[in-house]
Amino acid sequence: MGTDRPITVGRIDYANVWPIFHYAEQQLPADRFRIEKRVPAALNLALRQGEIDITSMSSFAYAEHADNYLLLPDLSVSAKGRVNSILLFMKKPLEQVLQGRIAMTATSATSVILLKILMKLYYQAEPSYVTMEPALDDMLAEADAALLIGDTAIHAAWANQENDKGLTVIDLGELWRNWTGYGMTFALVAVRKEIAVRDPESVSDVLHALTASKERSLRDLTPLVEKACTQLGGEPAYWHRYFNELHYNFGSDEQAGLTLYFDYAHQLGLLPNEVEMRFFEDHTALKVKNE
């Protein structure tokens, strides 16, 4: 296998990543692979420190250390417009929020940087920011608006509707699309370069498992919808729409949108380095063909 321990694969345990991982574990033998579920920020750190070998990770965290990683091709969590789980909740009118204070989730950098880009370049505004744990009521007690992501954002949006809290909600994926014309990629799957060199066959096995899971999940969303209803609540119609409005490939359109995001982040001094995306090359298919 080339390593003295199982290959460790990190999984963001939000519903938006389920299609990529739902069927993957059954294709990755436990004696060779270990799956770890954590929030994005924890996975980003674990990959950087070498505790995890391959992981789904926030796009911005990838960009910060892109020279150390390779991307697994054609895997992402993207949205062409509305994303439904990257949401800004405002208790005051937008014009006041733009001059006020925004509480930001501590769980992922990509959405935080996207918010800052939109505030600065789209709205021409510079509100102040505070980072907090993702609890909407606590955040709004300290700020005029709050940014939440993932399943926490979904539940907060439901509660806002059901309890008529009167909060205005902005979907950052939709706002980005309306402004730039591009979709937004929120998460990627990356491998540490040294693992790709040391054990390319295991990396290929993970790539194949994740790709097969993505394709099987999208052919029939019913198992994921049922899982979401059971674990997270909500109606089947909501979850069918949710998964259908997300995109899990990483083709030229997604790459162009993410490149623009990286360029804006660099322009604003939020990202110190420029980013050249490099991909893991899967040679197993070529090897089989030659044999």
TrEMBL record:
<dbReference type="InterPro" id="IPR003773">
    <property type="entry name" value="Menaquinone_biosynth"/>
</dbReference>
<comment type="function">
    <text>Catalyzes the dehydration of chorismate into 3-[(1-carboxyvinyl)oxy]benzoate, a step in the biosynthesis of menaquinone (MK, vitamin K2).</text>
</comment>
<keyword id="KW-0474">Menaquinone biosynthesis</keyword>
<comment type="similarity">
    <text>Belongs to the MqnA/MqnD family. MqnA subfamily.</text>
</comment>
<dbReference type="Pfam" id="PF02621">
    <property type="entry name" value="VitK2_biosynth"/>
</dbReference>
<dbReference type="InterPro" id="IPR030868">
    <property type="entry name" value="MqnA"/>
</dbReference>
<keyword id="KW-0456">Lyase</keyword>
<protein>
    <recommendedName>
        <fullName>Chorismate dehydratase</fullName>
        <ecNumber>4.2.1.151</ecNumber>
    </recommendedName>
</protein>
<dbReference type="GO" id="GO:0016836">
    <property type="term" value="F:hydro-lyase activity"/>
</dbReference>
<comment type="pathway">
    <text>Quinol/quinone metabolism; menaquinone biosynthesis.</text>
</comment>
<dbReference type="GO" id="GO:0009234">
    <property type="term" value="P:menaquinone biosynthetic process"/>
</dbReference>
